[in-house]
Amino acid sequence: MDKIKQYINDEPLKAMLFVALLLRLIAVVFAKGFGMFDDHFLIIESSQSWVDGADYNSWLPWNQGANPIPQGHSFFYTGIHYLLFLLMKYIGISNPDTKMYIIRLIHALYSLLIISLSYKITLKLSDKKSAVTVGWILTFAWFMPWLSVRNLVEIVSIPPLLASIWFIIRDNKQTFGKYFWAGFIGALAFSIRFQAILFIGGIGLVLLFLKPIKNAFIYGIGVLASILLIQGGIDLVIWHRPLAEFQSYVEYNLTHSGEYPNGPWYNYLLLLIGFFVPPYGLLLLAGFFKPKKSWMIMAIPTLIFLAFHSYFPNKQERFIFPILPMYLALGVMGWNALLQTKLNKPFWIKLTKVSWIFFLVVNFVVLGFITTSYYKRSRVEAMLYFYNKAPLKTIAIDGTNKNGSQLLPRFYSGDNNWKARFISIDKPSEYAKISPSDSIQYVLFFAQDNLKSRVQKIEDSLGPLQQVFVATPSTMDRLLQKMNPHNANDTIFIYATSKIKNIK
Length: 504
What we know:
Elements: H1 2-10, H2 12-30, H3 37-41, H4 44-51, H5 75-91, H6 96-125, H7 128-140, H8 144-148, H9 153-156, H10 158-169, H11 176-186, H12 188-192, H13 197-208, H14 214-239, H15 244-256, H16 267-275, H17 280-288, H18 296-311, H19 324-340, H20 346-371, H21 377-384, E1 394-398, E2 421-425, E3 442-446, H22 451-462, E4 466-471, H23 475-483, E5 492-496
Parallel strand pairs: 1-2, 1-3
Antiparallel strand pairs: 3-5, 4-5
């Protein structure tokens, strides 16, 4: 035990990365499914459909008809998945579950950069005590292993942003290459998540006030080169004009921002406090707003990003994820600095210790549950039922229960089901939408509410049905739905019609 403690003290970063890898490997195996719409339907469904000769979201201009319009989505990150799925197809990996194990593993390994870069940046800007605290929190914070294996552009964009800062502060060299590559790599985050331009612009703004001023322009050249080559280049090939998707993205958000979840300006501050469990979360907030001049290269971009999203009407929780490590580092450094100066009193020192212990207790109680939970299990398992079966042609979806039906992840049904027709029945009056001539193979019933009568209404049109599979939600799915009915994670009952041979 003493040797382990000594190793952790002597080699903290290696110890963090080892523990972080173990936690993330657990998430790779157990944290199946998807968290929300964006991390699956905008990435996995799109890229796999392209591999299979379809276009799930109709993003590609040649699938949109006479007047194609960019939909405001970057093809860079989705395109990387397209190449990964293309490679898997080439080497014979077809099982959707296996594909997602590989995808989660790649993301788990990539996410270790967040810990490594955050530790190094904090150590450079402050001291080992702060760096160790930041590194360990990012290693085992209750939300990090789970987020690390998700296909969320908000998380995937973090390493390039951190790398941009690290390239600038790691030494005192004033070379062209240093600032050019800092800008180039930082702008990769823009090609992953467009809002990252706020953070990148903040770094450039800070460099404008540092000598020599030419470094800011060199950084800007690197940013422009990256954006034009990657985001601009991809759009030039697909749309025959650079930055077409970004332009569409800006126009859409200016017009439709009010149609999404909103909240008070302090919404994200409350979220950040909650992520790190009060009262420790409150101490970090106090530290965040007490930065030193030498921390401006990270503080200004983080503050700009936070301020913009606090002002902008569309407030979804995931939007603030790209600055989580930066906010944490600034909060830890700032609070530790306060403890060494103005708050160097027994009360504040004891409060910090008690808050830290409470954070650890709550964190580790929640960590195991979050890291091993299967999200959206019923929807995923319902689609997995169809994998390796005869190609789907027509499916009816009965969502006349109190929560309605939810979008189904076709990816899990296999490579040959993208052209299947899904008929949704969300109101009792819509039962008239189906008829024997539709050649419906299966009917999926969401939730058990009035199931017997709903089955009877379908049988009145299609003949006898036979229950062939029941896809149940996970414990986490049930808990989330209980906490917020908006998280509709109902059981899905799959019935086969007479079109399937085993029905008499």
